[in-house]
Automatic annotation (TrEMBL):
Organism: Dermatophagoides pteronyssinus (European house dust mite)
InterPro entries reported for this sequence: NAD(P)-bd_dom_sf (IPR036291), Sc_DH/Rdtase_CS (IPR020904), SDR_fam (IPR002347), SDR_family_member_7 (IPR053011)
Pfam families, per database record: adh_short (PF00106)
Protein name, per record: Dehydrogenase/reductase SDR family member 7-like
Keyword entries, A-Z: Oxidoreductase
Taxon lineage: Eukaryota, Metazoa, Ecdysozoa, Arthropoda, Chelicerata
UniProt keyword Methyltransferase, yes or no: no
Family: Belongs to the short-chain dehydrogenases/reductases (SDR) family.
Any one Gene Ontology molecular-function term assigned to this protein's record: oxidoreductase activity
Gene coding for it: LOC113794688
Amino acid sequence: MMLFLLIIFAIFGYFLWKFAQLDHDLEILLALKFGKSISTIKGKVVWITGASSGIGEHLAYVLASNGAKLILSGRDESRLNKVAQTSSIANYDEQNVLVLPFDIIDRHCHQQMMDKVLKHFNRLDILVNNAGRAQRSWFVDVDSEIDHQLFEINVFGLVNLTRIVLRYFLEHNPDGQFGVTSSTAGIVGSPFISSYSASKHALHGYFESLRNELGSQQTTNNIGITLFCVGPTFSNILYNAFTGKPGEIARQIQPPLSNRMTTERCAYLMAIALANRLDQVWITRQPTLLMHYVSQYLPQLFRKIAPKYLSKKMLKHLRDLK
């Protein structure tokens, strides 16, 4: 009996040790071991918004190196051109990559952008909604104008473009797919980023509702939705983040010795999730990953302990090792 218990504890300890090494959820773990490779995206036409830097930029590199055809969108045309010309996609010509600059909040241009995509490639397979901005401020200090501006970027512009693409998928491509860059803050209401967290929660509401609508329709469609719940990642998103005051930018620089995931690693895991058409994935390092498992499966316990451990100082330590 003692030997049996020792074996059980040893197995349990081994799995705990393996879990502690993870920077992604169990869905991605299974996809990495038994699922499809990113190369299954070869030849597909993928439209990435927010592609001029950070996660969107590196996702473009991963997909291009696996043979995808790309539309790169964002506000900074010069940066988009640099992404298109980087070594990862240096062999691409105008038939394989389209630079399509626009502002996601300009909803009146979305149909025109979609028309340009179809004129260039004659089809679209995947839309990755990656455009967005962050925010840093205490709830009580946030001007309501910040809420409006943040939702225009992170939610309303993105949802409007999605509806336009969805109409195309329903009529012409029943195997189309949406990728949506959410956040771990879209699962747990994180302090000091209330407006940002609310905007990501809103994305889950929109896209989970859409998923259920698509599943309930009598028509045969296989339209996929992948929500990327991304944790702290190296990028310039915090430098350009809103604060609580209109017109003010956080200009927060991430320290080099940070607990944040690299954008390269994050983009690779996102590409795995896209290739396997996973519904929702968590991409974040420990201990944030463990914290989110507790929040989902032991919610009452989490609500009791979270306020004590999610102070501004503790969050900074979790993200930046400070």
